[in-house]
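From: lab user (bench 3)
To: helpdesk
Subject: output format question, protein + adenosine-5'-triphosphate

Hello, I'm new to running complex predictions and I'm not sure whether the block I got back is the full result or only part of it. Here's what I submitted:
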Amino acid sequence: MPELLRPQGPAAISMSHVSKIYHSDEEGDRTALADINLDIAVGDIFGIIGLSGAGKSTLVRCINGLETYQGGSLRVRGQEVSTLDAKGLRQLRQRTGMIFQHFNLMPSRTLLGNVELPLANTGMTRRQRTERAQELLDLVGLSQLAQSYPGELSGGQQQRVAIARALANRPDILLSDEATSALDPNTTKSILALLRDLHDRLGITVVLITHEMAVVRQICNRLAVIDQGRIVEEGRVFDVFAKPQAALTRSFVATTSNLDKVNDLVEQDSPIVHLEPGQVLLKMSYLSKAVNQAVVSTISREFDVDVNIIFGDVDVVEGSQLGGLVVRLEGSADHVSAALDYMRNQQIGIEVLNRG
Ligand SMILES: Nc1ncnc2c1ncn2[C@@H]1O[C@H](COP(=O)(O)OP(=O)(O)OP(=O)(O)O)[C@@H](O)[C@H]1O
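Helpdesk reply: Thanks, we reran it on our side. This is the complete output you should expect:
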């Protein structure tokens, strides 16, 4: 969603100074969340990324009231979660769907039976429940398999059933806890595309917990990076990818790009990166959404500098190009220097890796 269109009204989820400490007689206290401040707006697809043990699952479990928190304020749709009674918690969970890494389907029930489960005790007749479940299976592209059992399905199909089940009570928030971590890359892509489509069609806010930056890049508009229970970076996906600040964020961003491979090639003295006198090995990356797209042809034409592309990794994120190129520049010293100045002015990040 374009930043200007982000709703200014109450956040879907708002956290201020939230902390969570697990007490254990054997292992002592363990701080899982420390001073978390985060606003997730209505309509966001918000990625929360961190390494194993960072506190991601604890965070989502606090959001839907499965865990208590000790300090700060955590509001979902404006309501403080810690003050909800049993009925309030039930309503919170009905309006907050959740999907998991291992799908958590009931093996003894058909797909229809699984999707019908959350509709029990909602005042719907049996027929209404069946119709609704059929409609949901249709929504995730599995209406033909209503009478099959989870064990007969692939992982991606099982996750689709889990998504249908999570949407049964028409939630306006969907929490996804590592929902694609057990899936292969192609299935991951199709599940993320489904989540994006459901977000667009139903207007739901999605909170996506993951340890994979490529997942964030594919569908999120904002993200927060969590490290040892603390948020170390937060912002729009494009901005964080273009200019990651924290060391952990930089290492996550590096996992999504092949550009850093060039450092290994330089170290190994590979012929691919050998330079003749006067040549420059350069990493160029997009730092802004407003980059002049003809930058390569402009520098060769205007500055009489040859540009030889060694690696390329450009993707479209939030409608703008993101990523960069590793190139070998060749020209007179003055021309190369003028071309570098030109690129800096065009909001291209430049890093001279080596000079011949
Ligand atoms: N029930 C619990 N009792 C005690 N400590 C816990 C409990 N649940 C989590 N922790 C601890 O809290 C910290 C955060 O765990 P959490 O599961 O939230 O992290 P995570 O980022 O989701 O990791 P993973 O991706 O491995 O699930 C860890 O140090 C973990 O050992």
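A quick orientation on your result: The pocket of adenosine-5'-triphosphate is lined by residues 22, 24, 30, 32, 50, 52-58, 211 (CB under 6 Å). Let us know if anything else is unclear.
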